[in-house]
Structures are given as structure tokens and as C-alpha cells.
Specification:
The complex is a heterodimer of chains A (about 250) and B (about 325). Chain A is an alpha/beta fold. Chain A is built from six helices and 13 strands. Chain A has a nine-stranded mixed sheet with strand order 9-8-7-10-6-1-4-5-11, with helices on both faces. In chain A, strands 2-3 form a two-stranded antiparallel sheet. In chain A, a hairpin with a 2-residue loop joins β8 and β9. The longest helix of chain A is centred in the N-terminal third of the chain and has 15 residues. Chain B is of the alpha/beta class and about 325 residues long. In chain B, the strands form three sheets. Chain B has a seven-stranded parallel sheet with strand order 5-9-4-1-2-3-10, with helices on both faces. In chain B, α3 crosses α4. The longest helix of chain B is centred in the N-terminal third of the chain and has 14 residues. Classes of the chains: A alpha/beta (about 250), B alpha/beta (about 325). The structure holds flavin-adenine dinucleotide and adenosine monophosphate. Flavin-adenine dinucleotide (FAD) sits at the interface of chains B and A.
Chain lengths: ~250, ~325
Amino acid sequence: MRKILVGIKRVVDYNVRVRVKPDGSGVVTDGVKMSVNPFDEIALEEALRIRERGEAAEVVAVGIGPDEAQQQLRTALAMGADRAILVKTDAALEPLGAAKAFLAVIARENPDLVIVGKQAIDDDAAQTGPMIAALWERPQATFASKVEIKGATALVTREVDAGLETIEVDLPAVISADLRLNEPRYVKLPDIMKAKKKPLDVIELAALGVSAEATLKCVLVEPPKPRAKGIMVKDVAELIDALQKRGLV
Amino acid sequence: MSKILVIAEHDGSRLSQATARCVTCASQVEGADITVAVFAADPAAVAAQAAALAGVASVVTVAAAHNAHPLAAVLAPQVVKLAAGYTHVFGASTSFGKDLMPRVAALLGVAQISDAMAVEGAYRFKRPTYAGNAIVTLEAPADRILVATVRTASFEAAAGGGSATIRAASIDAALPGHTRFVSISAQATTDRPELTSAAKVVSGGRALASKENFELIFSLAGKIGAAVGASRAAVDAGYASNELQVGQTGKIIAPELYIAVGISGAIQHLTGIKDAKTIVAINKDPEAPIFEVADFGLVADLFQAVPEMQKALG
Ligand SMILES: Cc1cc2nc3c(=O)[nH]c(=O)nc-3n(C[C@H](O)[C@H](O)[C@H](O)COP(=O)(O)OP(=O)(O)OC[C@H]3O[C@@H](n4cnc5c(N)ncnc54)[C@H](O)[C@@H]3O)c2cc1C
Ligand SMILES: Nc1ncnc2c1ncn2[C@@H]1O[C@H](COP(=O)(O)O)[C@@H](O)[C@H]1O
């Protein structure tokens, strides 16, 4: 195959303990560490392995977001993506908007495969992959834990609630990466230097004819209800006693 | 009035409890008129179970060989056809619903509300973001169909005793042939309770250190009639199979009792258990974050504490 597009979203790093703004308008992101969405690193790693096996010629990282999202695209280039595209917008796009932006990039790039993360760890929406596939009228293989390219088709093992499901999809297709698909590689310093010279195109979202307007109104953002403070028991006997009093064992 | 279509989840013979929870969420929408849709090769048995759920007004079945295994690309165009005239389409936030519903939403050209956890109005729902660290209240436009997935841990399963009408529908939609089911390797069904619906769950973490040691978790669970769960670290290390993973990217559960054994309590794990009524943590590190959410914490070596518990329980 010629080309794989990979979604690279800039998100709050997974180690950050996210705090809600006191006015309920959102979460604190000022001065907070931002990273590539962990599932997108896995998506990219898979694309790179497919290319390294000689089954694809080119891997293109696609990010939709503000100028700063170039940092995450540079990380993707350092990992090994051949080039990157930033669809620039300062608006926080809903997954449907992101899918429409992807579709516009797909129309320009004509990829054989699009790999995204199964979910972004900020909105936890898990929507963009299936939405791209729907708008593109192509197959989707979500929650992938194994991908085998067989010529014009892909055999994908999916992590579903009941166990592992295998489906076969015709290419082009959309795959969403689950945690156990692979272990992403570490970026080495020389690669970071090399990545600076790789092409990174910036396209305005509006130039793709995609609206940034949100259809869901965010009324309030609040912290979760805290759990009541628990107690420390001194031994197993006290634990069993406490559970028996609650009628739990 | 809200006309709500709930997409049934099933294995061909049994209706999933996730659907019963979805129905409860739907019934909390004011003036809800609930229809459950069953797509299957032979929907009769599942339809009968759906019709018995309290709060369900009608069941519509779509029998077709291509519905034998749920494939989002094949189901979505059928759901879209069936959804005409409905105000809401709900599916459970399970691997089935998460695969299907966004495809339905995109075909309908609307945004989706993922993981609805509380009903605030017919078009207003709360949902968790940032692994449950920020709860967002969203309002969808009332002049469009609303597509949502339902966070099953937030709703009890609808009771039985209903007697909804059942009708068969035939759907004329162009279905793609580009996606084909090959196989599924489900875990051998055991007599243990199912993780997402169990009243009690015992989970093990990295501290178990081997697949053999993980038997300790199975045997404690067996003793108290609990389902078994695992942290991602335990799954990745191969001590437990992947469908047992609890957390942000595993299963979100809300049992009466959750016992976490040798699990540190990473944010991604906690998001899966926050709604448990009683949380017990056994960990040898008194600083482990799991103790911050535990109702009962025991600082101990699990290899002593767990056998001791078994003995105490007789
Ligand atoms: C995007 C993303 C998604 C993730 N999703 C999930 C998810 O869905 N679910 C999930 O669980 N994790 C998830 N994780 C991983 C998560 O961050 C943690 O790495 C993981 O939960 C750690 O598992 P653990 O607690 O078993 O292991 P550790 O963190 O290694 O904890 C082991 C604990 O065992 C204790 N211990 C050691 N020996 C003993 C003993 N003999 N007796 C008693 N206690 C002992 C230690 O004190 C320690 O607290 C995710 C991570 C990322 C980046
Ligand atoms: N703004 C974005 N930029 C790049 N990729 C994105 C963006 N939004 C979503 N994606 C991709 O879609 C996946 C699922 O996102 P979501 O539907 O928001 O949970 C992510 O893991 C990314 O791969």
C-alpha cells in the first residue's frame, strides 16, 4: 500500500492530575504538561511497523488543533513518521468535526489506511475512528490488538467485551488502536534532530471547508463527587468483621 | 414526548444486562416511550427477554442472516433507517455500543454524547471526561435526533415483569460487503458471575507476580461468589486475560463490593471502580493511592492476607 494516515492528538499528559476550574468552565490546562494521546503513539507505532515490513510506503501524521499541536506532530516525526499535517484551529472540535477534518485530509491524500487511537484521554469520547469510517463509507476495525495486512485486505483482532474477535476488512479502512496492539518505541535524540527537517504542512481548518462550531453545549464542568473517607483496619479479622457487619461476605 | 430507540446487545440467545441498564437510563428521560431494537439472525428469544423489561413499550426485531454477528458497518445503516421518527437512539457504552453508535451518529450527521451517566433533561446529560476527573453537563439541540451511549455502571438494570409488544420490521438499506466477521474466541463460559454485572468483584494487580499466583484471586472470588477483575499491569503481564481489565480502557463497574489486591490505584484504574459501593484495598505500601478511595484499607502482604481471609471465611 502507498500511504497510512495516523491521528496524533495533543492532550493533557496521562500522568497529570486534572483539576476543574472553580468557575465550572473547563479544566486547568495552563502550564500543564501536554503530550501525544497514548493511544495515538500506539497507532503510529503500528503504522511504522507496517511500513518497516515493506507493506506501506509512507506514514503521515495528522493533527487537528492549535499551533502548539505542532510539538506533538514533531514527536510523531521523531518516532518515524515521514511527514505531518496540522489542521489548524483554536476551537475545541467535537469528534464529528474532527472526523470531517480528517475526511477533508483523506480527500487530498488518498490513504489506504487510517489509524487513530481508540479514544482520546481528554474527552474520552471514542468516536472519531468510527465517524471517519462512516463519512468515508469505508470499513472500521475498532479496539485493534493485532493487525495483519494481506494485500488489499486487513485481518484485525479486536478486544471486545466477550474476548477477542477477528474481522476482515477491505482496504482502505479505518483502524482504532487499543492498548495491547504494540509497545511504542522510544524517541532517540538524533531522531529529534532529524524530525526538525521533516515536512510539516499547516492548513487552516476553514480552508478545508469544515465548520468548527460545536453542536453540544457545555453547560458545566465539575469535579466528581468525592468518596467518603474510609478507615484503615489493622488485620484480616477486623476487615472480615467490618464486611460482615455490612452484610457483604 | 421522547421516543427512544434502544439498540439491544446480545449474543444471539441472551439479552445483555447492559441493555437493561440502558433502558433504565432511557426511562429517566421525561415522557419516555421506549422501543428496543433487536438485530439478529433469529431474534425471537432475545426479543422476548427485551419485552419483559419494565419500562419497555415495544420491541422491534430485524431478522437477517447478515445480523448474525454484530458488525458496525452493517448494522449502522439499518439503525439509521429504523431511527426515523425517534427523538433519541441509545446504546450501551460497551465494546458493542462504542463501535456502533458513533457510526450511527455520523451517518445521521449529529454529535454523540458518550457515556451518559446522569439524565438532567431530555437533551441534557452528564458524562465523565479525563478518566472521570471532570464531569461535564452537555446539552444537545432539541430539534435533532440525539445519539448517546450509556455508562452502564451508572444505572441499575431495569426490572422484569414487563409485557411489551413485539413486531418484526424488514429494512431496506444498502449494506456494505467490505467488512466480514471471521471468528470470536470468547473465554470459556464459567459459573463465575460476569464482571460488569456482578455484585462483588475481586481484582488482582501486578503484585500477584505470576499467572499461577493469580489463582489466589480466583479462589478468593470463588469463596465469596465474586467475579474476577484485573489491573492493566496484570493483564499486560499475562496473569489474567484482557476482558478482565478494569479501568478507563477496560470495564467500568459498580459492584456492591470491590476488593483490590496488590493494585496501586492509578487514575486509569480508579475511574473504573469509583461507583463501587464498598471498596476494600489490600496493599503492602501504606502510601498506595488506592487507599485514598478505599472504605476499608489493609496494609499487608497479599500472600499472607488473602489465604488468611479465605480461612476466616470458612
Ligand atoms: C492510556 C492509559 C490507559 C490505561 N488504562 C488502564 C485501565 O483501564 N486499567 C488499569 O488498571 N490500568 C490502566 N492503565 C495503567 C495504569 O496507569 C497503571 O499502570 C496500572 O493500573 C498499574 O497496575 P497495578 O496497580 O497492578 O501495578 P503497580 O502500579 O505496579 O502496583 C502494584 C501494587 O502492588 C503492591 N504490592 C506489591 N507486592 C505486594 C504484596 N506482596 N502484597 C500486597 N501488595 C503488594 C505495590 O505496593 C503496588 O502498589 C492505563 C494507562 C494508560 C497510559
Ligand atoms: N484533534 C485531533 N487531532 C488528531 N487526531 C485526533 C483528534 N481528535 C481525535 N483524533 C483521533 O481520534 C482518536 C479518538 O478520539 P476521540 O474520538 O476524541 O476519543 C484519537 O486517539 C486520535 O487518534
